[in-house]
Structures are given as C-alpha cells and as structure tokens.
Amino acid sequence: VSCDPLKKPGHGTLECNHPLNKFSYNSSCTVWCEEGYEPTALSVHCNSSGFWSATVPACKAVTCPALEIPADGAVNCSLGELSWGTTCEFTCEEGFALTGPATLQCGSSGAWDRQEPSCAVVQCEPLSSPEKGALDCFHGAGNFTYSTACHFSCLEGWRLNGSHVLECGHSGNWSASLPTCEASEQVSYVSVGIAATSASLLSTASFLLWLARRF
C-alpha cells in the first residue's frame, strides 16, 4: 500500500522515514519550518488504506494576537494579517500623551516584542488663587488636565494684571502666565492718605511730648 508522495513545503523542509518503501505503509514525515513560520501539522504517517493520517503539512506565517485600540488613540499596522515582522504604530488624540512604546513588532514566536501602550490625558501644573483674588475652573477629563479653563477675578478695589482666563493646552502648558491682583488707583490714594495722616499724627504727638519735657 502506498500514499501520495509528499513535497517539500514552502518556507520549510520535509524529513521522512520509510520502513518499507518510499511513501508506503507506515512511512512517516515531519515538517520543519523556517523562522517566522509554523507547521500546520507536526507529522503525518501513511496508513493501511493508502491515505495520510492528516492533511499534508505546510508552513504558514506565524501571527501575533490582535491588538486593542487604546482609548483616545489609534493603531496603524504595516500588515493586515499581523504576521511575523509586522510593525504597529500607536498614536493618541490631541490632548493625550502615549504611555509606553510608540511601536510594537510581531516576533517569530508569535508574540509582540513589548507591552501595548495606552493614552493618558495631558496634565498641566495645578493653579491657585492669586492673593486678593479668586479662581474658578471648568475641568476637562480631570483636574487641571487638557481643555481645563480657569477664570480669575479680584476683590473689590483690586484689578487683575494679566489674562482673565487660562486654558490648559495639548502640550501641558497654560495659555498664559498666572495673573496677579494689584491695588487700584483709588485704593492707592486711600493708602497714601492713611499714611500721610499717620505721619501727621505722629509728628503732632512728638511735638507735644517735646513741649511737655520743656515745662
């Protein structure tokens, strides 16, 4: 009893053992594949009915598991089958930064060379209320993160020096420097008047004390 002769598979080699005649009853063949390929079956043998025990083995390209698209991001791969040698590049939407490697490559063993990355919202430096002022913020995805807008105001009698509104940008920087509250002209005049009056009272008191010491 003979089975159909087997041929060397693409990207691999065929090793056969023939106890009787070539490709006859009890002949067995094992497939070895090149790097990045794996056999569809490790070995087959010719049975008593003249058929191979399994489908003729072949070498197919190793594939890696499907990748998850990160939240607020995207992934673009060089090959659609995710086979050995495929490179996948990860990107994030505006206002989000990549945490982890930007590219992954499918290895010959069918595993990705690194762990999948994720996209994290960009964080700006926390702000505080200016002296003699107030701060009111509308936060985006989190406190002082991308798209957060903060409005500044000052107490009555004080004026704002700088921008009234600061926004957290996609690069992690605020749209302007932190403003300050400065005394208005009216407050300044009052302060000067108080200082002048105090100086006058002090001078009068000193003069009276001098007179008292003379008598």
From TrEMBL:
The chain crosses the membrane at residues 189-212. One of its GO terms (biological process) is cell adhesion. Gene3D superfamilies: Complement Module, domain 1 (2.10.70.10). It holds the Pfam family Sushi. Disulfide bonds join 3-46, 92-119, 154-181. Coiled coil: none annotated. The keyword Calcium applies. SMART domains: CCP (SM00032). Keywords: Calcium, Disulfide bond, Glycoprotein, Membrane, Repeat, Sushi, Transmembrane, Transmembrane helix. It comes from the Eukaryota. InterPro entries: Compl-Cell_Adhes-Reg, Selectin_superfamily, Sushi/SCR/CCP_sf, Sushi_SCR_CCP_dom. GO terms for cellular component: membrane. SUPFAM superfamilies: Complement control module/SCR domain. Residues 1-61, 62-121, 122-183 form the Sushi domain. This is LYAM2 protein. It comes from Trogon melanurus. The gene is Sele.
